Amino acid sequence: MSKDDAVVKLEAELDRVLTTLLIAANGSRTTVRIDDPARGWNVDFICGEGLKPGIKSLRGDGSIDQRAAATVAWMAKNRRNLIQPDLTNSPDPAPPPALMSAYSAKAQMLAPLFNKAGELQGWISVHYVDGTHDFSDGEIEALDRASAEVKRLTGI
């Protein structure tokens, strides 16, 4: 099943937003996951990505049950960004083990995307694979800007 031209164009716009975030947040990988059956999107697969050279893409990788992750439950409950500067020593919420083994992430920021009904419809991730990362206010602000832009582009 091929994607509608409008969805392909929207995914390219999401990639642009995520690449801008990647640079502003000094990340290794940025992704967005959104549940939107009309567009063929499911949070188990990314619908947009930005990558630093040499970093593995997550396109087509559905190896993690995203909705079962403690980090996703935390965002749904706390309704705010989750900032984890050290995934190895992050006691609560524990990241999915595959995030570190398969995705090589050592630190991450997550921004929840709530729809107009107040449901967690998706999220943006910034992964750091080179090591732990102390997040600056500017990097967190870049995540917030990207979140607002993704919401505007997708109509969430």
Structure description:
Helix content is 33%, strand content 19%. With 156 residues, it is α+β, with helices and mostly antiparallel strands. The chain has one domain (5-154): Beta-Lactamase, CATH 3.30.450.40. The model has no long low-confidence stretch (mean pLDDT 94).
Short description:
By secondary structure, the chain is α+β, with helices and mostly antiparallel strands.
Quaternary structure: single chain
CATH architecture identity? 2-Layer Sandwich
- How many separate domains make up the residues? 1
Structural class: alpha+beta
CATH topology: Beta-Lactamase
* Spatial ordering of strands, largest sheet: 2-1-5-4-3
Question: Can you say what the CATH homologous superfamily is?
Answer: GAF domain
Report the helical percentage. Answer: 25-40%
Radius of gyration: 14 Å
CATH hierarchy, class: Alpha Beta
Low-confidence stretches: none
How many strand segments? 5
Chain-averaged pLDDT = 94
Total count of helical runs of at least 4 residues: 4
Strand fraction: 15-25%
The topology string of helices and strands comes to HEEHEHEEH
Give the biggest sheet: 5 strands, antiparallel
Termini, distance in Å? 24 Å
Shape: globular
